[in-house]
TrEMBL record:
Family, per entry: Belongs to the TRAFAC class translation factor GTPase superfamily. Classic translation factor GTPase family. EF-G/EF-2 subfamily.
Superkingdom of the source species: Bacteria
Cell location: Cytoplasm
Keyword GTP-binding set for record: yes
Name of the featured protein: Elongation factor G
Higher taxonomy: Bacteria, Bacillati, Actinomycetota, Actinomycetes, Pseudonocardiales
Keyword terms of this UniProt record: Cytoplasm, Elongation factor, GTP-binding, Nucleotide-binding, Protein biosynthesis
Shown segment, full-protein numbering: 1 to 397 of 662
Described purpose of this protein according to its UniProt entry: Catalyzes the GTP-dependent ribosomal translocation step during translation elongation. During this step, the ribosome changes from the pre-translocational (PRE) to the post-translocational (POST) state as the newly formed A-site-bound peptidyl-tRNA and P-site-bound deacylated tRNA move to the P and E sites, respectively. Catalyzes the coordinated movement of the two tRNA molecules, the mRNA and conformational changes in the ribosome.
GO MF annotation terms: translation elongation factor activity
Chain residues that bind GTP: 16-23, 80-84, 134-137
Residue ranges constituting the Tr-type G domain according to the UniProt record: 7-277
Chief location of this protein within or outside the cell: cytoplasm
Amino acid sequence: MRTITLNAVRNLGILAHVDAGKTTLTERVLFATGSTYKRGEVHDGTTVTDFDPQERDRGITIFAAAVSCTWDGHRVNLIDTPGHVDFSDEVERSLRVLDGAVAVFDGVAGVEPQSESVWRQADRHGVPRIAFVNKLDRAGADLDRAVESLRTRLHTVPLVVQLQIGVEDEFVGVVDLVRMRALTWDPDLVEGPVPETLLAEAQRRRRLLEETVAELHLKALEEFYAQGTLTEQTLREALRDITRDGTGTVVLCGSAYRNRGVEPLLDAVIAYLPSPVDVPPVRGVGGEERQADPDAPFSALVFKVNATATGRLTYVRVYSGILHKGETVLVGGRAERIGRILRVQADRHTAVDTAVAGDIVAVVGLKSARTGTTLCAPAAPLLLEPPVSADPVVSVS
Ligand code: GDP
C-alpha cells in the first residue's frame, strides 16, 4: 500500500449554514475523489455521509463522521461538522480536530446568521478557511454580492480567485484567475484558454486579486512593486500564507448540485489549507506540547463515538506518534488493547495496522472512550482535554 507523507494529509471540515449545500458538496467531493460509485442525492436519502437514519429523516447532519478520500496524491480526511446551530457543541468538537475548513455559502443568500456564528467558532479555534460560494446556478445568485457579505459581515478580506462563466441557469464554468485558464463542465471538466469575451474582465479581476494580495503579503508586495505584476508561483504561495495566517479568505465558487466547481475546490484545499505539520503542535491541559511527529510518543483525541453494526467505533485524531493494532494504550487513563483500526471511506471500512500522527481513523471496541477522551502511550501520559463525565454513545444502525 502506498504510504502518504504527513504533509500530504488534509484534515478538512466543511462548515455551512443549514441548506447552503454542505451535504451535496460532501457527496460530490466523495464522488470526484472516486470514493463512491453511485451518486447519492439528498432528496432520496442515499447521500453517503448521512448514514444515520435519524439524520436522513430530519434532513440535517446531526452526527459528525470522518470519511477519508484521495485527491492528487493527498489524503483528505473529511470531518463532518453539524450545520445546525443547536449542535454547536459538536461543531466545537470537530473544529478541534480539523486543520482547515471550507466554508460554504449560498450564492443567493450570502452570509447568513448561522454562517457568522460558525465562522466565529472557527476563528476562536484558529482554523484556516477557504470559502465556497455555492448554488451559482440558482435564480438570483450573485457572486459579487455574496463576496461583499463576506467582507461586511465576517470582516475578512475576500480574495476571489475565480471569475464565473455564465450566470444562473447558464453558469457553466469559471476562469481560474491564478492560472488564467477557463474551466467548464460539460458535464465533465474541460480546461481551455480564457474566452475572448471574458479576457478583459478576467485581467481586471486578476489585477485586483494581485493588488489585494500585495497589501497582505510582504513578498508579494515587493514583487508587485518591482515588476508591476505577480508570478503565478508568488501568487500561489502568498494565497497559501494568507490562508494559513487568516489575514484573508480565498473565495471559489460553483454549483455543488450541478457538480461544477468541485475539482478546483479540491485543488485549492491541497494548495492553500495546511497539513498536520503546518499547524501548531497540540497542547495538553498542562501546557505540554506534542509535535505531529511519528517518532514522538503516541497521543490522540476521541472526537466521536458511534455504535454501529461493525461495533463501537471510536473516531480519533492522532496528534503524535503511531498507533499500532494490538498494542496497549491508555484510554482516559485506563489501559486498553487496540483491536481493529479502520480507515472509514464513503462506502466501506478498510482495516489498517497503524495510524500515524496527523491521521484520522476509527478504533473498534474501545470500552472507556468518550468524546474528548485522550489516548496516549503508557510511558508518556498526556491529557488533551479535561475529563468529561459522560456523554451518550450514538447509535447508528
Ligand atoms: P446542507 O443542509 O448544507 O447539508 O445542504 P444540502 O446539501 O442538503 O442542500 C440543501 C438543498 O439545496 C438541497 O435541496 C440541495 O439539492 C440544494 N442544493 C445544494 N447545492 C445546490 C446547488 O449548487 N444549486 C442548487 N440549485 N441547489 C443546491
